[in-house]
Specification:
Blueprint: E1 7-11, E2 14-15, E3 18-19, E4 22-31, E5 34-43, E6 50-53, E7 65-69, E8 77-80, E9 85-91, E10 102-109, E11 112-116, H1 117-122, E12 130-132, E13 135-142, H2 145-148, E14 162-166, E15 172-176, H3 180-190, H4 193-202, H5 208-214, H6 219-238, E16 240-245, E17 254-259, E18 264-267, H7 286-297, H8 307-317, H9 319-323
Parallel strand pairs: 15-16, 16-18
Antiparallel strand pairs: 1-4, 2-3, 4-5, 5-9, 6-8, 6-11, 7-17, 10-13, 11-12, 14-15, 17-18
Helix pairs in contact: 3-7, 4-6, 5-8
């Protein structure tokens, strides 16, 4: 008989003496071959409604999809009315692997991002989100893992690989799908990757530039950043990588996605409207998005934060996380 502890936890989102208006109830149980967790978000403010951003943030060894998205739009929020609650359920075994029997501790970690209904109605472009620091752990005991729990799903390459190109100094790349124009843009961006990863590696030193993007310098942390870059160079030079163009999994606001330990990156329709080459400031480009995604695939980085502003903030607040962030930094040029 498979033994599970059905655990419930209730949490008030309080950090450094500040009580946030949204609290969380968590419960998990085994349902068939799935490990299902439910999250109930409660608006404790009896005077104001909030919109919650519906995007994930993963702290465990995540084996699901890594997505490069555009800034959130209105339909990515869900309205949480004053004094009410909303629920979301997820099968966490679809993105986390349980390798053996035993006691597992699962952590819900945020920041939970939201905006007041009033502010949402006033703002028209990029939203100024409030961040509530939410963190709660709960433990589940699992037996007979191999037979009873399904493993994370990973979309395989589908379609015929065409136009396998040898890229001087940066391995080879092939394409599945896409137009000639789209493949030309991807190829131009790809040809810069290894050269610019090497430039980035040479910038890892005790400098103001390093501190800006990765926080206080220590030799051990700098070594980990260097290892991520080297894994990307070695991965691109040592593998025939694949670009899957406009696969069916794409959503309208996705630029690209990949998986850890993958030799392929999928590029969505929004990606093809970007400029090609990296620039010091401004919106992501084709090249910077590829550099970002290959750090997930080869370097096992995570999406703790996106963009220049929040990457700099992360470097100040949590240098250890900054080492493993998605390389949205001007170290890569």
């Amino acid at each position: 008989m498979t033994l599970w502890n059905h655990v419930q936890a209730e949490m008030s989102s309080i950090t450094e003496g500040v009580e946030w208006p949204i609290s969380l109830n968590v419960s998990c149980q085994k349902l068939g071959a799935a490990v299902a967790c439910s999250f109930d978000f409660i608006n404790k403010n009896d005077k104001e409604d909030y919109y919650i951003l519906k995007r994930g943030n993963y702290q465990l060894q995540y084996k699901g999809i890594h997505v490069h998205r555009n800034p959130p739009e209105r339909d990515e929020f869900i309205l949480l009315r004053s004094g009410k609650s909303i629920s979301a359920s997820v099968a966490i075994n679809n993105v986390f692997e349980f390798p053996k029997d035993g006691l597992y501790t699962v952590t819900y970690i945020s920041p939970l991002q939201y905006i007041s209904k009033t502010s949402m109605e006033l703002e028209s472009s990029e939203y100024q989100l409030i961040q509530s620091q939410v963190k709660k752990s709960f433990s589940i005991y699992l037996e007979d893992v191999a037979a009873s729990v399904s493993k994370p799903f990973k979309e395989e390459n589908k379609g015929r690989l065409i136009d396998l190109l040898s890229i001087e100094g940066c391995g080879s790349a092939g394409f599945i799908g896409g137009s000639i124009k789209q493949k030309i843009g991807i190829t131009k961006a790809h040809t810069q990757l290894c050269k610019h990863y090497r430039v980035a590696k040479n910038k890892i030193d005790n400098t103001q530039l390093y501190e800006t993007w990765f926080g206080e310098y220590t030799p051990s942390r700098a070594k980990l950043v260097t290892e991520v870059i080297l894994k990307c160079i070695e991965g691109l030079e040592g593998n025939a990588v694949t670009y899957r163009i406009n696969p069916s999994m794409c959503r309208y606001n996705w630029n690209a996605f990949t998986y850890a330990n993958s030799n392929s990156v999928s590029l969505c329709p929004a990606y093809h409207h970007r400029d090609i080459y990296c620039k010091r400031h401004g919106s992501p480009t084709k090249e910077s998005i590829l550099a970002h995604e290959w750090t997930h695939a080869f370097g096992w980085t995570r999406d703790f934060v996106y963009g220049e502003k929040r990457t700099k903030e992360l470097a100040k607040k949590d240098p250890w996380k900054a080492q493993y962030n998605n390389f949205d930094s001007s170290i890569y040029q």
